[in-house]
User: Fold Flavodoxin from Geodermatophilus aquaeductus.
Amino acid sequence: MIRALVVYESVFGDGRAIAHAIAEGLSSSISADVVAAAEAPSEIGPDVGLLVVGGPNHAFGMPRPSTREGAAKQYGADIPDTGAGLHEWLGTVRMPADGLVAAAFDTRGSGHRMLAKMDHASRTEEKLLTRLGARVVAPAEHFFVVDTKGPLVDGEEDRARAWGRTLAELVASRPLTP
Ligand SMILES: Cc1cc2nc3c(=O)[nH]c(=O)nc-3n(C[C@H](O)[C@H](O)[C@H](O)COP(=O)(O)O)c2cc1C
Assistant:
């Protein structure tokens, strides 16, 4: 039985809520675990068949130390280590030798829906996944927050659950090896 792993970065908790909702959706068909990138394992075990990663858009891209510091200074975010997040994890994690399939998501402000048409954080997440040898099997999904510190726009957790169910069906219907 394959397992799914959802690895997220979240400064204000919205991405964490989305990651858990995705895992709930995945759990309709496969067992799914959720972990913050700063605490994620340095090696993905062979039992993981699907890796889902996601985090916030910061300055049109994935969070980096300078934007995390900005979030702490400007918005009072509590970030224990501004050098540890999804980008850093995807830069060092070791993948199973026979690869795995993956999907990416991000969270972003809802003020500029047009911006959602330009892939930012999730685009980089997909590039890093591909560089690691993972096969991205679904288009990235974007989830919206009302303001910088949240909350999520109404209905986004339901949409994340539905996306999780769709991903689970997708991996169940096709071979998992890249
Ligand atoms: C430093 C910083 C830069 C941000 N830049 C962007 C941006 O370029 N585009 C955008 O849509 N949202 C931007 N946001 C809003 C974040 O996307 C939002 O805070 C995040 O999605 C909330 O998720 P979280 O609660 O999981 O951290 C920015 C937020 C911060 C703190």
